[in-house]
Amino acid sequence: YLQNNVINGNFMRRIIFVIMALALVAPVSLHARKKQNADISFKETVYDFGSVPERGGKVSHVFEFVNTGNANLVIKDVTAECGCTTPEYPQNPIAPGKKGVVKVTYNPLGRPGGFNKTVTVKTNGKTKRVYLKVKGVVNPNKKQ
């Protein structure tokens, strides 16, 4: 009877040791996985074109960003709220610490008056969505 208890005691000590070792290693492993995140940081998120002529042609602004994370940043999609605004963005992943741009073009033709347009940038980063805004006033054509 005593010999069985000694064997069972050693067995129980081993099980407790394994459980404690797993409890110590698991949080470190989970923490290491969480640290691999991309993140996007824009230099500016709002641009004012000021006053633009209606027939002066399209106007564009380049929004610069940097991947401030430690994993590749992927811009999944960039959408404008209407057809008068067209975004262009990188199709390839942006490495940590590297820069990229989102170009936003606005067409003032046939749109006299003030405008305030939003472009939504969707990423795989910690910051899932960023809203870029372009605004200004379109001066109407003078009738001749």
Helix/strand order, N-terminal first:
HEEEEEEEE
Helix content: 10-25%
Biggest sheet, spatial arrangement of strands: 1-3-6-5
Largest sheet: 4 strands, antiparallel
Structural class by sheet pairing and helices? alpha+beta
Radius of gyration (CA) equals 28 Å
Task: Give unreliable regions as ranges.
Answer: none
Mean pLDDT across residues: 87
Query: First CA to last CA: what distance?
Result: 112 Å
Annotation, overall tally of beta strands: 8
Form type: rod-shaped
| Strand residue percentage | 35-45%
Q: What is the helix tally?
A: 1
Concise account of the structure shown:
The protein is α+β, with helices and mostly antiparallel strands and 144 residues long. Helix content is 23%, strand content 42%.
Annotation keywords:
single chain, 144 residues, alpha+beta, four-stranded antiparallel beta sheet, four-stranded mixed beta sheet, 8 strands
What do you see in this structure?
By secondary structure, the protein is of the alpha+beta class. Helices cover 23% and strands 42% of the residues. The chain contains 1 helix and 8 strands, in the order αββββββββ. It has one helix spanning 2-34, and strands at residues 40-42, 46-53, 59-67, 75-80, 85-88, 99-106, 113-123, 129-139. The strands form 2 sheets. The protein has a 4-stranded antiparallel β-sheet with strand order 1-3-6-5, with no helix packed on it. A 4-stranded mixed β-sheet has the order 2-8-7-4, with no helix packed on it. The longest helix has 33 residues, at 2-34. The termini are far apart. The mean pLDDT is 87.
